[in-house]
Predict the structure.
Amino acid sequence: MVEKKLRYPTGVRPLLVEETARRKRIESRFVNILEDAGFAEVVLPIIDYVDPYASILSRDNSRSSYRFVDREGDLVAIRSDFTPMVARALAPALDVSQLPLRIFYRGDVIRCDASRLGVNRELFQIGAELVGDASLDADVEVMNLAVKIAREFGIQARVVYNDTSIAALLTDDERRAVATRRALTPSDIARRLTPEIAARLESVAAALDPSTFALHLDDLDEDTGYYTGIRFRLFGPDSRKAIAQGGRYDDVYQRFGTPAAAAGFTFTIDDLD
Amino acid sequence: MRIAIPKGRLQDRTLELFTAAGYDTPPEGDLRTRRLVFQRGDIEWIFVKDCDVPVYVEHGAADVGVAGLDQILEHNCGAYQPVELDFGRCRLMLIAAPGAPPLTNVATKYPRIARQWLEQRGVRAEVIPLGGSVELSAVLNLTSHVIDLVETGETVRVHKLELQDVVAEISPRLIIGKNAFRTETTRVRELIARIENALEAKNATAVSRIA
Protein backbone atom coordinates (compact mmCIF):
# COMPACT_ATOMS: atom_id res chain seq x y z
CA MET A 1 0.00 0.00 0.00
CA VAL A 2 2.93 2.28 0.75
CA GLU A 3 4.05 1.86 -2.86
CA LYS A 4 0.76 3.32 -4.07
CA LYS A 5 1.24 6.41 -1.97
CA LEU A 6 4.78 6.94 -3.20
CA ARG A 7 4.12 6.92 -6.88
CA TYR A 8 2.22 9.40 -9.01
CA PRO A 9 -0.38 8.62 -11.64
CA THR A 10 1.23 7.53 -14.93
CA GLY A 11 2.62 10.43 -16.93
CA VAL A 12 2.81 13.09 -14.24
CA ARG A 13 5.59 14.04 -11.86
CA PRO A 14 6.70 16.96 -9.75
CA LEU A 15 9.68 19.09 -10.69
CA LEU A 16 12.02 19.48 -7.75
CA VAL A 17 14.28 22.42 -7.10
CA GLU A 18 16.88 21.95 -9.83
CA GLU A 19 14.43 20.95 -12.51
CA THR A 20 12.18 23.83 -11.61
CA ALA A 21 15.07 26.26 -11.87
CA ARG A 22 15.91 24.81 -15.26
CA ARG A 23 12.29 25.03 -16.41
CA LYS A 24 12.11 28.64 -15.25
CA ARG A 25 15.27 29.54 -17.20
CA ILE A 26 13.88 27.96 -20.36
CA GLU A 27 10.55 29.69 -19.82
CA SER A 28 12.06 33.15 -19.35
CA ARG A 29 14.22 32.81 -22.46
CA PHE A 30 11.11 31.84 -24.40
CA VAL A 31 9.18 34.78 -23.07
CA ASN A 32 12.02 37.16 -23.93
CA ILE A 33 12.22 35.95 -27.52
CA LEU A 34 8.46 36.13 -27.98
CA GLU A 35 8.15 39.57 -26.43
CA ASP A 36 11.03 40.84 -28.57
CA ALA A 37 9.15 39.55 -31.60
CA GLY A 38 6.14 41.62 -30.56
CA PHE A 39 3.98 38.92 -28.96
CA ALA A 40 1.88 39.63 -25.86
CA GLU A 41 0.85 37.05 -23.30
CA VAL A 42 -2.62 35.80 -22.45
CA VAL A 43 -3.49 33.51 -19.54
CA LEU A 44 -6.15 30.88 -20.02
CA PRO A 45 -8.25 28.92 -17.53
CA ILE A 46 -7.24 25.37 -16.72
CA ILE A 47 -10.79 24.04 -17.12
CA ASP A 48 -13.54 24.97 -19.53
CA TYR A 49 -16.90 23.72 -20.75
CA VAL A 50 -16.80 20.98 -23.34
CA ASP A 51 -19.79 22.24 -25.35
CA PRO A 52 -18.28 25.30 -27.08
CA TYR A 53 -15.57 23.15 -28.64
CA ALA A 54 -17.82 20.41 -29.94
CA SER A 55 -17.66 21.58 -33.56
CA ILE A 56 -13.88 22.05 -33.56
CA LEU A 57 -12.40 19.07 -31.80
CA SER A 58 -12.73 15.65 -33.34
CA ARG A 59 -14.10 12.89 -31.18
CA ASP A 60 -10.65 11.37 -30.67
CA ASN A 61 -9.27 14.75 -29.78
CA SER A 62 -11.87 15.57 -27.17
CA ARG A 63 -11.56 12.07 -25.78
CA SER A 64 -7.95 12.76 -24.95
CA SER A 65 -8.96 15.29 -22.32
CA TYR A 66 -10.12 14.59 -18.79
CA ARG A 67 -13.77 15.44 -18.58
CA PHE A 68 -16.12 15.60 -15.64
CA VAL A 69 -19.47 16.98 -14.59
CA ASP A 70 -19.24 20.03 -12.37
CA ARG A 71 -21.66 21.02 -9.60
CA GLU A 72 -24.06 22.74 -11.97
CA GLY A 73 -24.25 19.59 -14.05
CA ASP A 74 -22.21 20.94 -16.96
CA LEU A 75 -19.61 18.83 -18.72
CA VAL A 76 -16.21 20.39 -18.12
CA ALA A 77 -12.77 19.46 -19.45
CA ILE A 78 -9.26 20.07 -18.22
CA ARG A 79 -7.42 21.89 -20.97
CA SER A 80 -5.65 19.59 -23.41
CA ASP A 81 -5.04 21.97 -26.32
CA PHE A 82 -4.45 25.69 -26.12
CA THR A 83 -5.28 26.73 -29.66
CA PRO A 84 -9.09 26.50 -29.55
CA MET A 85 -9.08 28.03 -26.07
CA VAL A 86 -7.14 31.07 -27.28
CA ALA A 87 -9.69 31.55 -30.04
CA ARG A 88 -12.64 31.22 -27.67
CA ALA A 89 -11.04 33.72 -25.31
CA LEU A 90 -10.14 36.28 -27.98
CA ALA A 91 -12.88 35.98 -30.59
CA PRO A 92 -15.77 37.77 -28.79
CA ALA A 93 -13.65 40.87 -28.08
CA LEU A 94 -11.64 40.84 -31.28
CA ASP A 95 -11.29 44.33 -32.68
CA VAL A 96 -10.84 43.87 -36.40
CA SER A 97 -9.10 47.25 -36.71
CA GLN A 98 -6.44 46.05 -34.27
CA LEU A 99 -5.48 43.01 -36.34
CA PRO A 100 -3.08 41.35 -36.75
CA LEU A 101 -2.60 40.35 -33.13
CA ARG A 102 0.48 38.59 -31.85
CA ILE A 103 -0.37 36.46 -28.83
CA PHE A 104 1.50 33.91 -26.78
CA TYR A 105 0.51 31.62 -23.94
CA ARG A 106 2.15 29.13 -21.61
CA GLY A 107 1.01 26.49 -19.19
CA ASP A 108 0.25 22.83 -18.69
CA VAL A 109 -2.03 20.77 -20.83
CA ILE A 110 -3.24 17.45 -19.51
CA ARG A 111 -4.13 14.51 -21.68
CA CYS A 112 -5.43 11.14 -20.70
CA ASP A 113 -3.85 9.00 -23.42
CA ALA A 114 -0.82 8.21 -21.30
CA SER A 115 -0.76 4.45 -21.48
CA ARG A 116 1.48 5.00 -24.48
CA LEU A 117 5.15 4.64 -23.79
CA GLY A 118 7.03 7.85 -23.18
CA VAL A 119 4.02 10.10 -23.44
CA ASN A 120 3.54 12.46 -20.55
CA ARG A 121 0.04 13.24 -19.49
CA GLU A 122 0.98 16.65 -18.19
CA LEU A 123 2.85 18.72 -20.73
CA PHE A 124 4.20 22.20 -20.28
CA GLN A 125 3.67 24.13 -23.47
CA ILE A 126 4.52 27.55 -24.76
CA GLY A 127 2.89 28.65 -27.96
CA ALA A 128 2.38 31.70 -30.12
CA GLU A 129 -0.27 32.81 -32.58
CA LEU A 130 -0.52 35.36 -35.28
CA VAL A 131 -4.21 36.27 -35.51
CA GLY A 132 -5.87 38.11 -38.36
CA ASP A 133 -3.26 37.69 -41.06
CA ALA A 134 -4.07 35.20 -43.79
CA SER A 135 -1.05 36.04 -45.89
CA LEU A 136 1.82 33.78 -46.86
CA ASP A 137 4.06 36.17 -45.01
CA ALA A 138 2.26 35.22 -41.81
CA ASP A 139 2.90 31.50 -42.51
CA VAL A 140 6.53 32.25 -43.11
CA GLU A 141 6.83 34.48 -40.04
CA VAL A 142 5.35 31.85 -37.76
CA MET A 143 7.53 29.05 -39.16
CA ASN A 144 10.70 31.12 -39.03
CA LEU A 145 9.96 32.25 -35.50
CA ALA A 146 9.68 28.62 -34.36
CA VAL A 147 13.06 27.87 -35.95
CA LYS A 148 14.56 30.96 -34.38
CA ILE A 149 13.38 29.92 -30.92
CA ALA A 150 14.87 26.45 -31.42
CA ARG A 151 18.14 28.05 -32.47
CA GLU A 152 18.19 30.12 -29.27
CA PHE A 153 18.25 26.81 -27.43
CA GLY A 154 21.12 25.53 -29.52
CA ILE A 155 18.91 23.33 -31.67
CA GLN A 156 19.58 23.22 -35.37
CA ALA A 157 15.96 22.67 -36.33
CA ARG A 158 14.64 20.75 -39.28
CA VAL A 159 11.06 21.49 -40.24
CA VAL A 160 8.84 19.20 -42.27
CA TYR A 161 5.72 20.86 -43.60
CA ASN A 162 2.78 20.37 -45.89
CA ASP A 163 -0.47 22.07 -46.74
CA THR A 164 -3.51 20.51 -45.07
CA SER A 165 -5.84 21.81 -47.75
CA ILE A 166 -4.38 19.14 -50.03
CA ALA A 167 -6.48 16.66 -48.06
CA ALA A 168 -9.61 18.14 -49.65
CA LEU A 169 -8.30 17.26 -53.12
CA LEU A 170 -8.17 13.57 -52.29
CA THR A 171 -11.00 11.12 -51.77
CA ASP A 172 -11.59 9.73 -48.27
CA ASP A 173 -10.06 6.43 -49.32
CA GLU A 174 -7.01 8.11 -50.82
CA ARG A 175 -6.55 10.19 -47.72
CA ARG A 176 -6.70 7.15 -45.48
CA ALA A 177 -4.35 5.36 -47.84
CA VAL A 178 -1.84 8.19 -47.68
CA ALA A 179 -2.10 8.45 -43.91
CA THR A 180 -1.55 4.76 -43.26
CA ARG A 181 -0.02 3.15 -46.33
CA ARG A 182 1.69 5.95 -48.24
CA ALA A 183 -0.17 4.74 -51.28
CA LEU A 184 0.39 7.96 -53.21
CA THR A 185 3.87 9.31 -53.81
CA PRO A 186 4.71 13.01 -53.52
CA SER A 187 4.67 13.29 -57.31
CA ASP A 188 1.21 11.66 -57.48
CA ILE A 189 -0.01 14.33 -55.13
CA ALA A 190 1.87 17.12 -56.92
CA ARG A 191 -0.12 16.28 -60.07
CA ARG A 192 -3.38 16.69 -58.15
CA LEU A 193 -2.66 20.13 -56.75
CA THR A 194 -4.87 22.97 -57.85
CA PRO A 195 -2.92 25.83 -59.47
CA GLU A 196 -3.80 27.95 -56.45
CA ILE A 197 -2.33 25.55 -53.88
CA ALA A 198 0.68 24.85 -56.07
CA ALA A 199 1.41 28.56 -56.40
CA ARG A 200 0.99 29.06 -52.67
CA LEU A 201 3.37 26.23 -51.84
CA GLU A 202 5.90 27.55 -54.31
CA SER A 203 5.87 31.02 -52.78
CA VAL A 204 6.17 29.61 -49.26
CA ALA A 205 9.05 27.35 -50.31
CA ALA A 206 10.78 30.28 -51.99
CA ALA A 207 10.58 32.30 -48.78
CA LEU A 208 11.95 29.55 -46.53
CA ASP A 209 15.53 28.40 -46.05
CA PRO A 210 15.74 25.08 -47.91
CA SER A 211 18.40 23.71 -45.57
CA THR A 212 15.91 23.90 -42.69
CA PHE A 213 12.51 23.43 -44.28
CA ALA A 214 11.37 20.44 -46.31
CA LEU A 215 8.00 20.16 -48.03
CA HIS A 216 6.56 16.61 -47.80
CA LEU A 217 3.48 16.52 -49.99
CA ASP A 218 2.58 13.02 -48.82
CA ASP A 219 2.75 13.88 -45.13
CA LEU A 220 -0.96 14.11 -44.39
CA ASP A 221 -2.65 13.20 -41.15
CA GLU A 222 -5.72 11.02 -41.40
CA ASP A 223 -7.50 13.51 -39.20
CA THR A 224 -6.30 17.00 -40.04
CA GLY A 225 -8.08 18.43 -37.01
CA TYR A 226 -8.74 22.16 -37.19
CA TYR A 227 -5.84 22.88 -39.55
CA THR A 228 -6.77 24.44 -42.85
CA GLY A 229 -3.43 25.37 -44.45
CA ILE A 230 0.24 24.93 -43.65
CA ARG A 231 0.97 22.22 -41.11
CA PHE A 232 4.49 21.79 -39.79
CA ARG A 233 6.56 19.85 -37.31
CA LEU A 234 9.93 20.89 -36.00
CA PHE A 235 12.65 18.37 -35.15
CA GLY A 236 16.00 18.60 -33.45
CA PRO A 237 19.07 16.98 -35.00
CA ASP A 238 18.87 13.41 -33.63
CA SER A 239 15.33 13.41 -32.46
CA ARG A 240 12.54 11.11 -33.49
CA LYS A 241 10.16 13.35 -31.64
CA ALA A 242 8.85 16.68 -32.84
CA ILE A 243 9.70 19.40 -30.32
CA ALA A 244 7.27 21.88 -31.80
CA GLN A 245 4.37 21.77 -34.20
CA GLY A 246 1.88 24.12 -35.65
CA GLY A 247 0.22 25.49 -38.73
CA ARG A 248 -2.67 27.54 -40.02
CA TYR A 249 -6.24 27.22 -38.77
CA ASP A 250 -8.38 29.90 -40.37
CA ASP A 251 -11.79 28.52 -39.33
CA VAL A 252 -11.33 28.35 -35.58
CA TYR A 253 -12.07 31.99 -34.69
CA GLN A 254 -15.16 32.06 -36.83
CA ARG A 255 -16.64 29.24 -34.76
CA PHE A 256 -16.40 31.51 -31.75
CA GLY A 257 -18.14 34.43 -33.41
CA THR A 258 -15.51 36.56 -35.14
CA PRO A 259 -13.90 35.36 -38.35
CA ALA A 260 -10.13 35.77 -38.26
CA ALA A 261 -7.31 33.93 -39.92
CA ALA A 262 -4.77 32.45 -37.55
CA ALA A 263 -1.48 30.60 -37.61
CA GLY A 264 0.70 29.49 -34.74
CA PHE A 265 2.87 26.89 -33.11
CA THR A 266 3.39 25.17 -29.80
CA PHE A 267 6.58 23.99 -28.17
CA THR A 268 6.30 21.22 -25.63
CA ILE A 269 8.98 22.21 -23.17
CA ASP A 270 9.62 18.72 -21.78
CA ASP A 271 10.70 17.76 -25.29
CA LEU A 272 13.46 20.37 -25.28
CA ASP A 273 15.44 18.30 -22.73
CA MET B 1 18.81 3.68 -38.53
CA ARG B 2 17.34 1.10 -36.17
CA ILE B 3 15.28 -1.81 -37.45
CA ALA B 4 13.03 -3.90 -35.17
CA ILE B 5 12.70 -7.56 -36.11
CA PRO B 6 9.84 -9.57 -34.56
CA LYS B 7 11.00 -12.64 -32.67
CA GLY B 8 9.11 -15.87 -33.27
CA ARG B 9 6.78 -16.75 -36.15
CA LEU B 10 7.93 -14.01 -38.54
CA GLN B 11 11.61 -13.71 -37.62
CA ASP B 12 13.31 -15.99 -40.17
CA ARG B 13 11.29 -14.84 -43.19
CA THR B 14 11.74 -11.22 -42.19
CA LEU B 15 15.52 -11.57 -41.98
CA GLU B 16 15.54 -13.42 -45.33
CA LEU B 17 13.65 -10.53 -46.87
CA PHE B 18 16.07 -7.90 -45.58
CA THR B 19 19.00 -10.04 -46.74
CA ALA B 20 17.41 -10.35 -50.19
CA ALA B 21 17.03 -6.58 -50.21
CA GLY B 22 20.79 -6.30 -49.79
CA TYR B 23 20.92 -5.51 -46.07
CA ASP B 24 23.67 -6.95 -43.92
CA THR B 25 21.51 -8.81 -41.39
CA PRO B 26 23.03 -10.37 -38.26
CA PRO B 27 24.32 -13.91 -38.97
CA GLU B 28 22.50 -16.89 -37.49
CA GLY B 29 25.31 -17.70 -35.05
CA ASP B 30 24.99 -14.28 -33.45
CA LEU B 31 21.25 -14.63 -33.07
CA ARG B 32 21.61 -17.67 -30.82
CA THR B 33 23.42 -15.60 -28.22
CA ARG B 34 21.48 -13.56 -25.69
CA ARG B 35 22.32 -10.30 -27.36
CA LEU B 36 19.38 -8.12 -28.26
CA VAL B 37 21.08 -5.41 -30.29
CA PHE B 38 23.30 -6.02 -33.32
CA GLN B 39 25.20 -3.23 -35.02
CA ARG B 40 25.97 -4.00 -38.67
CA GLY B 41 27.35 -1.08 -40.62
CA ASP B 42 25.12 1.93 -40.00
CA ILE B 43 22.11 -0.16 -39.09
CA GLU B 44 21.21 -1.33 -35.64
CA TRP B 45 19.06 -4.47 -35.56
CA ILE B 46 16.97 -5.10 -32.51
CA PHE B 47 14.98 -8.24 -31.78
CA VAL B 48 11.78 -7.70 -29.86
CA LYS B 49 8.64 -9.67 -29.10
CA ASP B 50 6.33 -9.46 -32.11
CA CYS B 51 3.60 -7.64 -30.23
CA ASP B 52 6.06 -4.94 -29.17
CA VAL B 53 7.31 -3.98 -32.65
CA PRO B 54 4.50 -1.42 -33.24
CA VAL B 55 5.21 0.14 -29.84
CA TYR B 56 8.93 0.54 -30.57
CA VAL B 57 8.31 1.98 -34.00
CA GLU B 58 5.47 4.30 -33.07
CA HIS B 59 7.53 5.86 -30.30
CA GLY B 60 10.68 6.22 -32.32
CA ALA B 61 12.70 3.63 -30.35
CA ALA B 62 13.04 1.95 -33.74
CA ASP B 63 12.69 3.63 -37.14
CA VAL B 64 11.53 0.62 -39.09
CA GLY B 65 10.00 -2.72 -38.16
CA VAL B 66 7.97 -5.64 -39.36
CA ALA B 67 4.66 -6.28 -37.62
CA GLY B 68 1.47 -8.22 -38.26
CA LEU B 69 -1.67 -6.21 -38.94
CA ASP B 70 -3.10 -7.84 -35.80
CA GLN B 71 -0.49 -6.12 -33.62
CA ILE B 72 -0.71 -2.87 -35.56
CA LEU B 73 -4.47 -2.68 -35.03
CA GLU B 74 -4.35 -3.83 -31.43
CA HIS B 75 -1.86 -1.12 -30.55
CA ASN B 76 -3.71 1.46 -32.63
CA CYS B 77 -0.29 2.04 -34.15
CA GLY B 78 -0.01 5.19 -36.25
CA ALA B 79 3.13 4.11 -38.10
CA TYR B 80 3.11 3.96 -41.89
CA GLN B 81 2.58 0.53 -43.43
CA PRO B 82 4.00 1.03 -46.91
CA VAL B 83 4.60 -2.61 -47.86
CA GLU B 84 2.48 -5.68 -47.27
CA LEU B 85 4.66 -8.79 -47.07
CA ASP B 86 3.82 -12.01 -48.83
CA PHE B 87 4.49 -14.49 -46.05
CA GLY B 88 3.00 -15.34 -42.68
CA ARG B 89 -0.53 -14.45 -43.72
CA CYS B 90 -3.37 -15.69 -41.59
CA ARG B 91 -6.83 -14.74 -40.41
CA LEU B 92 -8.12 -13.32 -37.20
CA MET B 93 -11.29 -15.31 -36.61
CA LEU B 94 -14.25 -15.65 -34.34
CA ILE B 95 -14.25 -19.24 -33.11
CA ALA B 96 -17.05 -20.88 -31.14
CA ALA B 97 -16.69 -23.44 -28.36
CA PRO B 98 -17.71 -27.04 -29.20
CA GLY B 99 -21.45 -27.14 -29.90
CA ALA B 100 -21.47 -23.47 -30.93
CA PRO B 101 -23.17 -21.90 -27.90
CA PRO B 102 -24.67 -18.40 -28.22
CA LEU B 103 -22.12 -15.60 -28.23
CA THR B 104 -21.90 -14.28 -24.67
CA ASN B 105 -18.22 -13.76 -24.00
CA VAL B 106 -15.03 -13.81 -26.01
CA ALA B 107 -11.53 -14.62 -24.85
CA THR B 108 -8.76 -13.03 -26.89
CA LYS B 109 -5.24 -11.67 -27.01
CA TYR B 110 -6.72 -8.74 -28.95
CA PRO B 111 -9.21 -7.00 -26.61
CA ARG B 112 -9.15 -3.74 -28.54
CA ILE B 113 -9.84 -5.31 -31.94
CA ALA B 114 -12.43 -7.64 -30.40
CA ARG B 115 -14.37 -4.84 -28.74
CA GLN B 116 -14.36 -2.75 -31.91
CA TRP B 117 -15.48 -5.62 -34.07
CA LEU B 118 -18.27 -6.68 -31.71
CA GLU B 119 -19.44 -3.09 -31.44
CA GLN B 120 -19.49 -2.65 -35.23
CA ARG B 121 -21.67 -5.72 -35.49
CA GLY B 122 -23.96 -4.54 -32.72
CA VAL B 123 -23.18 -7.63 -30.66
CA ARG B 124 -23.14 -7.34 -26.91
CA ALA B 125 -20.55 -9.70 -25.48
CA GLU B 126 -17.97 -9.47 -22.77
CA VAL B 127 -14.36 -9.45 -23.87
CA ILE B 128 -11.94 -11.36 -21.67
CA PRO B 129 -8.28 -10.55 -22.34
CA LEU B 130 -5.95 -13.54 -22.07
CA GLY B 131 -2.22 -13.83 -22.61
CA GLY B 132 -2.02 -16.93 -24.76
CA SER B 133 -3.44 -20.41 -25.57
CA VAL B 134 -6.69 -18.60 -26.05
CA GLU B 135 -8.54 -21.53 -27.64
CA LEU B 136 -8.31 -23.32 -24.34
CA SER B 137 -10.88 -20.99 -22.83
CA ALA B 138 -13.45 -22.16 -25.38
CA VAL B 139 -12.38 -25.80 -25.00
CA LEU B 140 -12.88 -25.54 -21.23
CA ASN B 141 -16.11 -23.52 -21.64
CA LEU B 142 -14.67 -20.53 -19.84
CA THR B 143 -16.05 -18.47 -22.73
CA SER B 144 -18.52 -19.18 -25.51
CA HIS B 145 -16.11 -17.88 -28.15
CA VAL B 146 -12.58 -16.81 -28.78
CA ILE B 147 -11.07 -14.39 -31.29
CA ASP B 148 -7.68 -15.59 -32.39
CA LEU B 149 -5.35 -16.07 -35.35
CA VAL B 150 -6.00 -19.08 -37.53
CA GLU B 151 -3.22 -20.26 -39.82
CA THR B 152 -3.88 -23.90 -40.70
CA GLY B 153 -6.99 -24.47 -38.59
CA GLU B 154 -5.40 -27.54 -37.02
CA THR B 155 -5.99 -26.43 -33.41
CA VAL B 156 -9.60 -25.69 -34.23
CA ARG B 157 -10.18 -29.14 -35.77
CA VAL B 158 -8.43 -31.05 -32.99
CA HIS B 159 -10.54 -29.38 -30.34
CA LYS B 160 -13.81 -29.55 -32.30
CA LEU B 161 -14.17 -25.79 -32.22
CA GLU B 162 -16.16 -24.01 -34.92
CA LEU B 163 -14.85 -21.24 -37.19
CA GLN B 164 -17.63 -18.68 -37.45
CA ASP B 165 -16.46 -15.40 -38.90
CA VAL B 166 -13.43 -13.57 -40.24
CA VAL B 167 -12.59 -10.59 -38.06
CA ALA B 168 -9.64 -9.47 -40.21
CA GLU B 169 -7.26 -10.72 -42.87
CA ILE B 170 -3.84 -10.47 -41.32
CA SER B 171 -0.59 -9.90 -43.15
CA PRO B 172 2.76 -8.73 -41.88
CA ARG B 173 3.75 -5.25 -42.97
CA LEU B 174 6.86 -3.21 -43.14
CA ILE B 175 6.13 -0.39 -40.74
CA ILE B 176 7.87 2.95 -40.51
CA GLY B 177 7.60 5.53 -37.77
CA LYS B 178 6.02 8.75 -39.04
CA ASN B 179 8.79 10.84 -37.58
CA ALA B 180 11.47 8.54 -39.01
CA PHE B 181 9.83 9.17 -42.38
CA ARG B 182 9.92 12.89 -41.77
CA THR B 183 13.52 13.12 -40.63
CA GLU B 184 15.21 10.22 -42.48
CA THR B 185 13.23 10.58 -45.66
CA THR B 186 15.89 9.56 -48.17
CA ARG B 187 17.12 6.48 -46.33
CA VAL B 188 13.63 5.36 -45.48
CA ARG B 189 12.35 5.74 -49.03
CA GLU B 190 15.36 3.81 -50.27
CA LEU B 191 14.65 1.03 -47.78
CA ILE B 192 11.03 0.80 -48.94
CA ALA B 193 12.12 0.61 -52.57
CA ARG B 194 14.67 -2.11 -51.82
CA ILE B 195 12.16 -4.21 -49.88
CA GLU B 196 9.59 -3.80 -52.67
CA ASN B 197 12.17 -4.83 -55.26
CA ALA B 198 13.20 -7.86 -53.22
CA LEU B 199 9.57 -8.95 -52.98
CA GLU B 200 9.04 -8.46 -56.70
CA ALA B 201 12.21 -10.39 -57.55
CA LYS B 202 11.04 -13.23 -55.31
CA ASN B 203 7.64 -13.31 -57.00
CA ALA B 204 9.24 -13.21 -60.45
CA THR B 205 11.38 -16.25 -59.57
CA ALA B 206 8.35 -18.07 -58.25
CA VAL B 207 6.43 -17.33 -61.45
CA SER B 208 9.27 -18.45 -63.71
CA ARG B 209 9.48 -21.71 -61.77
CA ILE B 210 5.82 -22.42 -62.41
CA ALA B 211 6.17 -21.45 -66.08
Observations:
- Chain B touches chain A at residues 55, 58-61, 63, 80-82, 177-183, 185, 192 (CB under 8 Å).
- Chain B is about 35% helix and 30% strand.
- The mean pLDDT of chain B is 92.
- The domain at 90-168 of chain B is CATH 3.40.190.10 (D-Maltodextrin-Binding Protein; domain 2).
